Protein: UDP-N-acetylglucosamine 1-carboxyvinyltransferase
Organism: Veillonella montpellierensis DNF00314
Amino acid sequence: MEKLIIKGGNQLKGRVRVSSAKNAVLPIIAATMLATTPSTLLEIPKLDDVFTICDVIASLGVRVTFNRDTDEINFDASQLTAIEAPYDLVRRMRASFLVMGPLLARKGEARISLPGGCAIGSRPIDLHLKAFEALGATIELTEGYVYAHAPNGLRGNTIYLDFPSVGATENVIMAATLAEGKTIIENAAEEPEIVDLVTYLNSMGANIKGAGTNIIRIQGVKELSGAVHTVIPDRIEAGTYLIAAAMASGDVYVENALSEHLKPVVAKLKEAGVTVEEDVDGIRVISDGNLKAVDIKTLPYPGFPTDMQAQFMALTTIATGTSSVTETVFENRFMHVEELQKMGAHIRIEDRKAIIDGVDHLTGTRVRATDLRAGAALVCAGLAAKGSTEIDHLHHIDRGYDDLVGKLKGLGADIVRVDE
């Protein structure tokens, strides 16, 4: 088993470049299945989740070609040969379920096992299935699989999402691009990753309007052609480096970070006493390590992102005063609390709220990454802690951070990855 060993206390200084967004590239890779001619995606991060979704669509007949020298991936979905995604691939990652929309649109049927991923909450797929039914698909649930079929094709409809689910919004958009007639999605998710997916689909010939608002209109077209696309920067990776620098008394410029995608995080960092400078090329954080208590509450975009909750909680553990963190998106996203407590954090849980009394410092110890963002939070904590921190279960971190060790070393962190 591999682990990270971090010797805390080093001030972070320098520049770090953010990779393309994991949460944008995964649905866009699924969307390449809709094209009858090849597509090319540029600047793709080397992440386990990227490799998994590529394996999933390759199992369905898409020809996937990696160019590791240029970080490009070419996709040729002209010959889809299967409608069932293998269980052993889908169970690794929840985003694998995003192939159902494109399969329904192209093949008229899809059979997908119930998805896996981080254990941060139930994240039911009922919103996806209700929407597919509204588009004319018949849904059957048998033996851990979802089978959807629309032998007469999908037909546009008005769909209201009970919750602005990012995954459901993406899946419905992809299914509706080739549906007959017009589809309207109400209470749609507004995340930048939705906008990027639609930008790619429209470049393929789709007719979609309203991305980035809560009402999206899709006029179905007969077919889509491949396109070349560069995925947006990863706002969660950027936010993680901002937090790390703030906790480690850093002066760090995060290149390729889009401040308009990080407004709640930037606002809370400023509230915590951190100097934040924004420009068109990135965001600079300057911190003297004297942090103030803040309260955060996760919400769908444009609110404070749930994917930044764990990292920001790590920051509050060494802030002066009492902070609170309220999680409204996922019901089981406080698994990092126990690990932070091992490092000396004073945290108590009250239902879906964590109360954090800041301490003078954290102390390094052995901890476990319980999910992707929890792992990132522990890295931030380890960088600021006294002594040595060992983090295992790194497969979670590998799902979402490209070259984390190399990038942090470039900022002066004492961090190594070792195999026990």
